[in-house]
């Protein structure tokens, strides 16, 4: 979860976005058969046990140990590595139908390639079996920002084409060891954010950028590396999908997809410039990955503005990349307004952001830590995928409200947020969107990749200073549980007061 060049806008604009109808009273059974509700986490963010049982460092361990997260690390985090049974028990109590988690590459294959770590295989088998024996579907992300530092040191990680082979071998181990029970595979988490944040702006590991772009990195090239990395991500994804289809899919009968971060985008004004800029932002941000996997080529505007810095697909690669998904995963949190910034194209020496040539203005209220609640942005995002990409099957992999870590369990803003956004998913489905599932981010308060332990998105609070790392249900866990168990939900104040009373009775009992 992240935010880009943030400005706040007059409240008037917010109201424009919010004042659209959203389903308010609804229940679990209003969703189509087969629709699945869950919650998620990722390996580095929850597992802890960073140097146990043969795990080697990932680029995130390096980054956090260099003090880049104000001294915070995922060394212990909320210790799901040891507490997975307790966590699955909470999932059962909550009524989760699915759990989204990722596999740590440096745990499974500590050197990045070569020998598989049997203790890691045992851990993920135990987690998967625990989930399945309780009727919870595992939805597994293969790569969530955390490749082995060994590969970064050896050949520059995603900067090298060599990673395609190593990633495919890593995915092969995942399919082979776990694919008899895991039916939903996502190759990559947010490959549309990683090139920008890690290789243009340089704020996330491996922390690369070049002057005058980005944030004072010691190495990198913001003008060319983001495109190179996006290209290698696409080739690695397509190669893993090809392998799954050839070797596993007909026996294992699962599905494989890719995940994207998606804002809902609105032009700042109705000027032609801002309307075009909004399409350009979508093409650059979502289309960079979605166009190749759906149509087999990069968006025209990306080709034009990046020129020779954008690698091209050979004929054979084109065939592998095109259609390389059974579903798309979407991470949606917020809406933005887009303002034209074509002036940046006048400069000959440009980074990825200057090529995009827009200002992205987050619709946030800077006096509040919580995200604004703009549920119609969810439907708008889903509509965009429906119309621009031929209505592919979609899983909403992440959606959730940010609060500061606090022992107060009454996270009313998260309840309101979830209520609104899940209602908006229902609106989108009723208008024809092929959405198949919804996962809140996050199941527990985790180590956030932007902001460490301060920002929280969890249904369960964890006090990281408590040596037991006990989990505590928040009001939102209670609300989601009520919804998942079939109780009708509404967001009016009577509903919330009733929910709060039931919750405090429950909390006192436990
Ligand atoms: C940039 O990084 C260098 C080396 O890490 C450091 O000495 C310098 O203070 C940094 N400059 C700024 C403006 O952060
Ligand atoms: C970045 O890469 C481009 C294209 O390969 C090259 O022209 C430019 O000199 C490089 N810039 C830096 C700072 O290395
Ligand atoms: C743009 O035009 C649409 C349709 O006429 C209108 O609903 C919307 O409010 C306008 N937006 C702005 C920012 O003026
Ligand atoms: C509903 O779907 C139709 C047809 O795809 C589309 O034109 C319309 O904009 C959608 N409505 C909303 C509110 O997204």
Ligand names: 2-acetamido-2-deoxy-beta-D-glucopyranose
Total helical elements: 18
CATH architecture type: Alpha-Beta Barrel
**Strand arrangement, largest sheet?**
1-2-3-4-5-7-10-12
Q: What low-confidence regions span 5 or more consecutive residues with pLDDT below 50? A: 1-21
> Which strand-content bin applies to the residues?
5-15%
What composes the largest sheet? 8 strands, parallel, barrel
Count up the domains. 1
Stated plainly, the CATH topology is called TIM Barrel
Estimate the mean pLDDT confidence. Answer: 94
Q: Using DSSP, what is the number of strands?
A: 15
Tell me the overall shape. globular
Tell me what you see in this structure.
With 510 residues, the chain is of the alpha/beta class. The protein has one domain (28-509): Alpha-Beta Barrel (TIM Barrel). Helix content is 42%, strand content 14%. It has an eight-stranded parallel beta barrel with strand order 1-2-3-4-5-7-10-12, surrounded by five helices. Strand 14 (460-462) and strand 15 (471-473) form a beta hairpin. Helix 4 runs parallel beside helix 6, helix 8 packs parallel to helix 10 and helix 15 (376-388) runs parallel beside helix 16 (412-430). It starts with 10 loop residues before the first helix and ends with a helix. Residues 1-21 have low confidence and may be disordered. Keywords: Hydrolase, Signal.
Task: Give the topology, please.
Layout: H1 11-18, E1 36-40, H2 43-46, H3 59-65, H4 80-94, E2 98-102, H5 105-108, H6 118-133, E3 137-143, H7 149-155, H8 162-178, E4 184-188, H9 194-199, H10 225-252, E5 255-261, E6 264-267, H11 272-295, H12 300-306, H13 315-321, E7 327-331, E8 335-340, H14 352-356, E9 358-362, H15 376-388, E10 394-398, E11 403-404, H16 412-430, E12 435-441, E13 455-456, E14 460-462, E15 471-473, H17 475-484, H18 493-509
Parallel strand pairs: 1-2, 1-12, 2-3, 3-4, 4-5, 5-7, 6-8, 7-10, 10-12
Antiparallel strand pairs: 8-9, 11-13, 14-15
Helix pairs in contact: 4-6, 8-10, 15-16, 16-17
Bound molecules: 2-acetamido-2-deoxy-beta-D-glucopyranose (4 copies).
């Amino acid at each position: 979860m992240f935010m880009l060049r943030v400005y706040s806008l007059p409240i008037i604009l917010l109201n424009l976005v919010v004042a659209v109808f959203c389903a308010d009273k609804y229940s679990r059974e209003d969703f189509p058969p087969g629709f699945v509700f869950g919650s998620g986490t990722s390996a580095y963010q929850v597992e802890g046990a960073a140097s146990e049982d043969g795990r080697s460092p990932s680029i995130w361990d390096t980054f956090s140990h260099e003090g880049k997260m104000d001294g915070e690390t995922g060394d212990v985090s909320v210790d799901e590595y040891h507490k997975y049974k307790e966590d699955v028990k909470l999932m059962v109590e909550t009524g989760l139908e699915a759990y989204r988690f990722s596999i740590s590459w440096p745990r499974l294959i500590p050197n990045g390639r070569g020998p598989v770590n049997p203790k890691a295989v045992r851990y993920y088998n135990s987690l998967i079996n625990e989930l399945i024996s309780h009727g919870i579907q595992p939805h597994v992300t293969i790569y969530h920002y955390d490749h082995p530092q060994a590969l970064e040191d050896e050949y520059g990680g995603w900067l090298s084409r060599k990673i395609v082979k190593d990633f495919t071998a890593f995915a092969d181990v995942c399919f082979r060891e776990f694919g008899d029970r895991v039916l939903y595979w996502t190759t990559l988490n947010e490959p549309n954010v990683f090139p920008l944040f890690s290789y243009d702006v340089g704020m996330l590991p491996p922390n690369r950028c070049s002057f005058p772009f980005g944030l004072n990195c010691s190495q990198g090239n913001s003008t060319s590396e983001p495109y190179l990395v996006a290209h290698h991500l696409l080739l690695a994804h397509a190669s893993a999908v090809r392998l799954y289809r050839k070797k596993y899919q007909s026996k294992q009968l699962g599905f494989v997809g890719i995940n994207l971060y998606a804002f809902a985008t609105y032009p700042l004004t109705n000027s032609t410039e801002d309307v075009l800029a909004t399409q350009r932002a979508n093409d650059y941000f979502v289309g960079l990955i979605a166009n190749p996997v759906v149509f087999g080529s990069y968006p025209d505007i990306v080709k034009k503005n990046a020129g020779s810095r954008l690698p091209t697909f050979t004929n054979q690669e084109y065939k592998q990349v095109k259609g390389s998904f059974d579903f798309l995963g979407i991470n949606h949190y917020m809406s933005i307004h887009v303002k034209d910034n074509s002036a940046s194209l006048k400069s000959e020496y440009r980074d990825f952001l200057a090529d995009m040539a827009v200002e992205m203005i987050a619709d946030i209220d800077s006096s509040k830590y919580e995200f604004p609640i703009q549920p119609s942005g969810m439907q708008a995002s889903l509509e965009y995928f429906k119309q621009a990409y031929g209505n592919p099957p979609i899983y909403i992999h992440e959606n959730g409200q940010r609060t500061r870590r606090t022992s107060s369990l009454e996270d009313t803003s998260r309840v309101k947020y979830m209520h609104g956004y899940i209602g908006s998913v229902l609106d989108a489905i009723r208008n024809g969107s092929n959405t198949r599932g919804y996962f809140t981010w996050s199941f527990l308060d985790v180590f956030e990749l932007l902001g460490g332990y301060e920002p929280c998105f969890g249904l369960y609070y964890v006090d990281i200073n408590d040596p037991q790392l006990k989990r505590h249900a928040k009001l939102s866990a209670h609300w989601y549980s009520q919804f998942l168990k079939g109780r009708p939900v509404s967001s009016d104040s009577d509903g919330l007061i009733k929910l709060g009373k039931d919750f405090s009775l429950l909390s006192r009992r436990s």
